[in-house]
Design goal:
The chain is of the alpha/beta class and about 350 residues long. It is built from 15 helices and 13 strands. The protein is globular, with a radius of gyration of 21 Å.
Length: about 350
Amino acid sequence: MAVLDAFFKFMHEVGGSDLHLVTGSQPLVRLKGRIEKIKYKVLENAELKKMLYEIAPDEKIKIFEETGDVDFGYEIPKMARYRANFFNQKWGVGAVFREIPTQIPSVEQLGLPTVISKLASLPKGLVLVTGPTGSGKSTTLATIIDHANRTRHDHILTIEDPVEFVHHSNNCVVNHREVHTHTRSFTSALRGALREDPDIIMVGEMRDLETISLALEAANTGHLVMGTLHTTSAASTIDRIIDIFPANEQSQIRASLADAIRAVVAQTLFRRADANGRVAALEILLATPAVRNLIRESKIHQIATTIQTGRKFGMQSMDDAILDHLLSGRITPADAYTHCADKAKFRQYLTTPPEDFTDV
């Protein structure tokens, strides 16, 4: 057993989400969104490097020594998988490990709106799950893929860096491709995917123009494409995709995106006030004809209004989702106020509203 396995076991038992190991510091674990120290000695560079290299494949060690950072997946059978990132910093080596559960939660277990499971049955188009780092994007996406795996009879292809949730073929055949291990890049894997008879393509992260362009092409040629972006709202997601293209191509991209888009799910994680763990608040945009027209006509600023009027279709704004959690006692007024957009709407729930210097 690797030395680090004891840290992973501890994190698993206390319900942590991330393990931080950094030269010059005690080990730390993220619990319910907060970093907490583990009672252990301060880590020295040579000692930590030896522990890290014990679990890393030789080719990943070589990449790390050449570039100064590397990502890969590590698994402890019957417990969990871990997304590992090694990096160099001022005092020496460092690493962060994100725990990926072996059991994929359902929509009901996560407390997500039922419309999320319906996204798994879409025949084609583009579905984006967005949010900041650590907001649960991968978990929500894995839940949708798992629902498709249990209810459809198709070919699911995932392209990730590294592979996180592992889906075993159920009614669908599932193939996982890891960037830098099974393929050179997201773009080369996407090009190959179009010749591999996929029905659903999951792209771990849509990072650049070429990846986004190929994903749009796949979505517009009869495939259901799912991916993630680091954006905080549905409107900013649409803007990000369009803005990544050169100005002379943006009119064409707006039309292509309007045809391809099916849904944007933007999410934020909150510490639960009524129980252990965390809960997600979701903004949901569904591509109704009105939404498609707004994208084509470059009226993205009107999307927020369309979400409000589209509740009957399953749409919801982030503030409405936060308010629902607050009124149900799942989150605190202080956390709700911190993450909401309309501060005036939430000040009434605070005993002592804070001064927000950004409003000055």
